[in-house]
Amino acid sequence: MRVRCRFGVLEAGLAMACVAAMLSVGATVQAAGEEDQPMEDRIDVYAPNPAYWAYRGKPVLLLGGSVEDNLFQIPELEAHLDLLKSAGGNYVRNTMSARDEGNVWPFKRTNGQYDLEQWSEEYWHRFERFLQLTAERDVIVQIEVWATFDYYRDCWARNPFNPKNNATYTAEESGLPLVVNSHPLATENNFFWSVPAERNQHTVLKYQRRFVDKMLSYSLSFGHVLYCMDNETAVTPEWGKYWSQYIQAKAAEAGVRVHTTEMWDPWNLSDAKHDATFDHPETYSFVDVSQNNHLNGQKHWDNAQRQRARIAGQRRPLNNVKIYGADGGRFGNDRDGMERFWRNVFGGMASARFHRPDSGLGLSDKAQANIRSARMLTGAMDVFACEPHNDLLSNREPNEAYCLANPETEYAAYFPNGGSVDLDVSGLAGPATVRWLHVLSSQWRQSRSVQGEGPLRLECPSKDYWAVLIR
Q: On the chain, which terminus has fewer CB atoms closer than 10 Å, C or N?
């Protein structure tokens, strides 16, 4: 007899132990006789080019945008995912957050107090449904385990982990504050210092583990999930390291491999805090570089390329789960958001997702157009065999054009605002075709033939957002 559970497949002698462990975290047991999910059905690093991901055995570029961060909690989830899919999107962010109106927290509430020993069925139903709907559409999910801002200010005042809101432990037993009025940058909530390498707060850690175990009891059964430990954290590296290793160990027990990262607060990717992800592939198998998307223009590109060179000896995917920039927002305008999106695609990044409305383009009409056009362009070439190649461009002004190429086969260029440059296509052995793509209308122009000799003059049809493919 074999029992397949959300933590793996065990022989009969261990089956009852598995069942007991699952029941303790609210997991489910599936019928005997089901086969394990093959590793190639799970998202993994693309071996021929580790700068990218592979899913279901094929390389995949992750593009997306969505209306909210804690997507599993929104009411019109299925329609929103269908809209994303129709635009060519395949990538969403999901914080395990419960702070917005209409959200539910993960624990059961009785007589005004939460019980950390009992689960909210609705919270976990929403999460499982979200995983099922995204899996059906081959949409990759990047989970953020600890939604940092849920643990500060007015959100902490409502959070079940706050001792004043639960009947499970007191402030004295947990060492947790009842009030935290500061920004997360001040790191004044002891919640994020509970791990053994820091304050080793057993009471809090017990229920933190229980929460993560419950989450994994659903997510490990799905192969389309990536794990980020936090959102814009400023705490000790030991916190993220602990949870990354904890999740990896739980996955290994279940017989699967998962990929983890951390998201640090500093906008400058050269800040020492980012060293924990860039310099420690044994802890983090990919790097989220979203904070770079606060930068503009040529500086945005140059900084990303420095980080790419930094890990050239041991390549890993560089993900952008948050691309800032929308008219009226705090971090740039629509143009900034669209340019950042394309510079990430042309810069050899593994993913590009527009941040939620108020800070990004979300899944607005402009976001859909850019996702659709990026998918049209990269679908017409072997982007996974290409590299950023601005060195092939001449007569170029800063931020005028960007090049992605496999020099003996194909070249692509992106123009944020029209312009003209010269492209060295001497690597081509013979004639080639040139085809322009208007980004905002997602329409190709008629192709023309050129000879693959010397520099090729690329002049945009108009002063607008354009991409061009030379093959």
A: N
The 10 Å Cβ neighbour count of residue 155 is 18
Residue 14 one-letter amino acid = L
Looking at residues 340-356, what average pLDDT do you find?
98
Domains, the chain, ranges and CATH? 1-35 (no CATH), 37-379 (3.20.20.80), 387-470 (2.60.40)
The answer to whether residues 392 and 439 touch, using CB atoms and an 8 Å cutoff, is no
- Exposed / middle / buried, residue 160 (Cβ in 10 Å: 0-12, 13-18, 19+): buried
Distance CA 337, CA 205 (A): 39
Asked if residue 342 has pLDDT above 90, the reply is yes
How many CB atoms neighbour CB 15 within 10 A?
18
Q: Which residue has the tokens 């691309």?
A: 323
Say if CB 205 and CB 176 are below 8 A apart. Answer: no
**Does position 313 have pLDDT exceeding 90, yes or no?**
yes
What average pLDDT score do residues 52-73 get? 97
Residue 117: count of CB within 10 angstroms of its CB: 12
E strands of 316-374, at which residues?
Answer: 318-319, 351-354
DSSP 128-191: HHHHHHHHHTT-EEEEEEE-GGGGSHHHHHH-TTSGGGBSS--HHHH---S---S-GGG---GG
Q: What's the pLDDT score for residue 4?
A: 35
Rounded Cα distance between 167 and 177, Å, is 15
CB 270, CB 242: distance < 8 Å: no
Structure tokens at 191: 């919640």
pLDDT digits (tens, 9 = 90+) for 143-154: 999 999 999 999
pLDDT of 10 over the 50 cut: no
